[in-house]
Amino acid sequence: MGKLRIGLIGTGRFGRLHLKVLQQISGAEVAAIADINRQALHSAAAECRVGPEDCYGDPLELIRRSDLDAVDIVSDEKSHGALVLSALRQGKHVIVEKPLSVSFAEAQEIETTAALSGKQVMVGNISRFSQPYFTIKRAVDSGRLGRIAAIRSQRDFSRSWFQGFGNRIHPVYESGVHELDLMLWYAGCRCVRVSAFESHISGYKYPDLFSALLYFENGITASLDSSWLVPDGAPQNLVEALELGGTIDARIEVIGEDATARYQLAHQGLSIWTAAGLQYPETTLWPLGPEGIGGAIRGELEHFVQSISRKEASPVMPLSHSVHVIEIADAIVESARTQTVIHLGEKKEGAEHVHR
Predict the structure, then answer these.
(1) Considering only CA atoms, which of 23, 76, 31 is closest in space to residue 56?
(2) Which neighbouring-strand residues pair with 242?
(3) Closest C-alpha to 285, from 4, 21, 1
(4) pLDDT of 241 strictly over 80
(5) Whole-number Cα distances in Å, 67 to 6, 84, 283, 287
């Protein structure tokens, strides 16, 4: 079988990271790129050697190309749902950066449309391809931790980054979905109740802090705390391939009756002391190595290419999980708004159940 021909939508910082990784994968060919920002589009084209005839200012024009097998969507969060639906209706497989959508109703429409089209939709839940998080998953599934009782998580980001998100999107969709996806993956069943709170410290439209408590149908409880208030003086751990300096301080703890698994993303395993400050370079998500960009981002995109090429549904990134994550995210926003406990609806009949 020939290479999977992919059109990439979104040539910002993370889109260029996707583009570079896809160009390293032997089974993939980036045949076209699109971005409504012409300057970003032309810069990415020059950097990654994409011809002007394969550059589009309108993502829908790219999607309509008949010679593409798949679309990689790395655009603004609120555009994801509509672009995924357009790609499916044009007969394209899709990988989309998180979130799948910013509303549960749209996520459900995507799930229905994907089933009718026979095309795959995978969401870039990168943590599932990060070795530490995957090791915890294996420990859960093998029974090493015993029966799981609780999951605790925290995900904090540099304060300076919130200038770009504070008036753009609620942080539960931008960042919280990472932890919600891990919780769902480890719990292995649906979340049925949500209670959440949020605070506006910096004066933006959306909260820069939120906390949520989740209860799963098998009795597991989970907590998520997230803020965008990490000071600039904190040790930086994003210092290489993403072209972004700053800090992601993420921690997760899975508590079982026999053992507990813990992981912290920002840690001192590797440190670089500079005149400008201390760095803890992150080495699992998108590290630079002898063969280019590796880590979880390469594993995720290679898995997508291989799954489509083999015509096999992904066991790692099932669409039903990502749809349920958006249902939980919507419930967190609604719970914080109404100051009530939100009870999530039952899974619709005939749809795939969330499972390990």
Answers:
(1) 31
(2) none
(3) 21
(4) no
(5) 9, 17, 36, 32
